[in-house]
Amino acid sequence: MSERESPGYELPLLLFSGFRSLIDETHRRLAAQGHPEMRPAHGFAMQAIGVEGASASEVGRRLGVSKQAAGKTVDRLEAMGYVSRQPDPSDARAKTVVLTERGLDSLRRSAVIFEELQSEWAAAIGTDRLRALESDLRTVTGGQGLRLDAQAWFGG
Length: 156
Description:
Blueprint: H1 10-32, H2 40-49, H3 56-63, H4 67-79, E1 83-88, E2 91-99, H5 101-125, H6 127-140, H7 150-155
Organism: Rhodococcus tukisamuensis
Pfam families: MarR_2
Protein name: MarR family protein
């Protein structure tokens, strides 16, 4: 193996390390900006809820977890003030989980932080290399887009 080659197992570890560094730094900055209780799983759940809201069952489907597991996450987010349960206008027996202003604030702040981190990576490796990396990742992943089920996937 030459100096420039690396073993195949290193690629997923490097990609995961990059992911972790971005997520960990995002949560460090969120904590400093008034959201110390936020965890990565909360962010995925709030993305699954979306700006339109969703039922606990739909949150579970989007996250790839059971309705019960999604319900526990929603319970935690509700206790922290990030979501609330509202009557479903189409079904009087059902509830829709919606983001509160605090939840929306954390998502807005996260978006700004991700932009800052992207700029920091561009400063470290160069804008052209970062854009090429992003483009190459879109190519090799088949443009799958955002997947919210990472937590369930890791959980087995």
